[in-house]
Amino acid sequence: MRKSTLMEKVTRRTISSSSFFLCFFIFSSSILFLAGKSAAKVSFDGDNDDNVTALFIFGDSFLDAGNNNYINTTTLDQANFPPYGQTFFGLPTGRFSDGRLISDFIAEYAKLPLIPPFLEPGDSQKKLCGVNFASAGAGALVETFQGSVISLRTQLGHYKKVERLWRIKFGKEESKKRISRAVYLISIGSNDYSSPFLTNQSLSFSMSQHVDIVIGNLTTFIHAWDGSSLRRIRYPDNFKISGSGSLFGESIILLSLSGSGVCGYPGFKEGKMGCCGSGPLRGINTCGNQMGKSYELCENVTDYLFFDASHLTEKAHRQIAELIWSGPPNVTGPYNLQALFELN
Ligand SMILES: *[C@@H]1O[C@H](CO)[C@@H](O)[C@H](O)[C@H]1NC(C)=O
Ligand SMILES: *[C@@H]1O[C@H](CO)[C@@H](O)[C@H](O)[C@H]1NC(C)=O
Ligand SMILES: *[C@@H]1O[C@H](CO)[C@@H](O)[C@H](O)[C@H]1NC(C)=O
Ligand SMILES: *[C@@H]1O[C@H](CO)[C@@H](O)[C@H](O)[C@H]1NC(C)=O
Ligand SMILES: *[C@@H]1O[C@H](CO)[C@@H](O)[C@H](O)[C@H]1NC(C)=O
Ligand SMILES: *[C@@H]1O[C@H](CO)[C@@H](O)[C@H](O)[C@H]1NC(C)=O
């Protein structure tokens, strides 16, 4: 196996899944929560209740609920085969986890149904409480894993389509009201830093210029909404990873775990080894045998922080979601997400 291929298997997910943890470093990656000025009461029926607070989800494999099932890409960017999804759904959905993602829990806490992937065909009624646009491998830059993912720019284009559909469905005023009340969940950034290395894309900029460009594009993306009507939640340092070492080495997964504040909240028996994969600490991304390679699967996934070489278990997603939803102000401030949903 070529070294680069191995590295890609190991690190691509690694980097993308580290995005949440790394997001507290200034430039690594970002998870943002944005909401319209007047988030209001929440209910199940997107069609009849004009007070529904919709949830829109953008980003990478951390939040992709199955969009990549519908694009022409490689299994590196897909999780639509067993044992993904086994814990909660009983079948693979495209989520890079054994079960639900942060966004699924947030939807549940907000009394919304599961938010469907934009590309999932069928009932458009299902897309009236929100839509998930995220795509595994995606970054803020169009160039990031270009051709095998849905870039943030294209995700924004998909969002604009939903806006148009809502205008037709609800009328101009009502759709505007719903959009302005919606909550936006975004996980993006780390693939932008790994992609140039993993795809041999030549960087005509210095690393710090590259970082500026990523931040610039993310800013542009955020400004696609009327900035003044958005509120933003910041997360302080307690999530920060204190691991060190080569960002692109195999050990990133382990390092990013060992020092993580998240690990200690309330803790996992196994914070280093993945549940599904092969090689040292199951750090090689062969989960599901899609690469024609064998893999190991742990016996009890609830002991694990990581499900595959770089993506979290449902249990970890739930814990993070709980913190985001109802964490205290010194952890999740100035608003936790519950407050954001209830803002008037
Ligand atoms: C929506 O909210 C408005 C203002 O808060 C309220 O008057 C109205 O009854 C609510 N509608 C529904 C269906 O709950
Ligand atoms: C999918 O992508 C591959 C590689 O780029 C290409 O050869 C193939 O024709 C594509 N398939 C479809 C259905 O577009
Ligand atoms: C990247 O470039 C190196 C050196 O030219 C080469 O050995 C490797 O196969 C390339 N990797 C990819 C993914 O194209
Ligand atoms: C966004 O990224 C592109 C490259 O994908 C770059 O040319 C452009 O300058 C960036 N925009 C900003 C505002 O940084
Ligand atoms: C799996 O692990 C959890 C947490 O350590 C434990 O509570 C549970 O009993 C275990 N289940 C089995 C079947 O061993
Ligand atoms: C937040 O406050 C609680 C209670 O005052 C405290 O126990 C906890 O350690 C604080 N967390 C952080 C991250 O400061």
TrEMBL record:
The keyword Lyase does not apply. Pfam families: Lipase_GDSL (PF00657). The keyword Metal-binding does not apply. Keywords: Signal. It comes from the Eukaryota. Belongs to the 'GDSL' lipolytic enzyme family. This is Uncharacterized protein.
